[in-house]
Design brief:
77% helix, single chain, mainly alpha
Amino acid sequence: MPQRDLRSKRISTHTNVARLEGLAALSGVMIALQSRANGELSHRLNNSLEAALVSFGSGLIVIAVIAIFNPRIKAGITKLRSAVRENRLPKWNLFAGVLGGSFVALQTQVVPLIGVAIYSVASIAGQTAISLVVDRLGLSGGAKKLISKKRLGAAFITVAAVLLSVWDRLSVTTFSILAVALSGLAGAFVGVQRAMNGRINIYSAQSFTTSLLNFIMGTSTLLIFLLFKYLSHHGGLTPLPHGPWWLYTGGTIGVIYIAFSSTIVQHLGVLTFTLFSVGGTLLGSLLIDIFAPTNGTHVTWFLVSGIFLTYLGVLTGGESRIFKR
């Protein structure tokens, strides 16, 4: 192949990678928006588990309605059935949404005990740690990646960035080793779920089919948790608030996010996706704190510095190929 063609192909590859990395960061912004909507809904309901079920349930309704009129989603379901029947895709991969539902259930129980700040650090630590492992195993269906010093360094810097961004909100009075460990476990659930969704997407060849499957499994899991809570006499259901409208956008954002992530993670790997997503989440949190803050929140230099440190870690750790020409 002529040298010019090789150079053009290399530039095209790097451009595609840069686009995927940008989409990974955008998905992180979507997480921040979803957290804002679900957090406000949880506050108004005073029932975090019910808020999570409303979010998952609304997302399931949205994607189910789309699936009725979208033949490509139906074709994706058919492809998944064939892959499972022919043993090309193990059945346990289909339960990725259970991890998503379990993550939310853990989150709603742990955050009141240790606060959002400590939870965020522990959860991100769990995500980055498990991302190294699932990339090494090739669980997402992409190429296996060694646990190199650069990748370890990038993961460490990212956790440090999150710690810095919430430094002013940390409180030693709300520290619990068990709660912190459960937060890390919740983050690990997310990392494994992303990898499983990547593999599902290989066989469905339709990202919204992957979203549909996730929301069926996640909603079912939360229904079981909420039923158990109700039967244990630890609370009932609360009437849904009338507004504002954006309280109920969490599910729709989740549908788009899962479709995004299940496609991108196949190409970037779980760790790279996680690092860019974390940076996007911090950036989204900054924008929300500026334009639509919750009561008592304000922009700090800790959050701004954390955003810069996150992307510094991505670049110096060699996880981005934007500048590798």
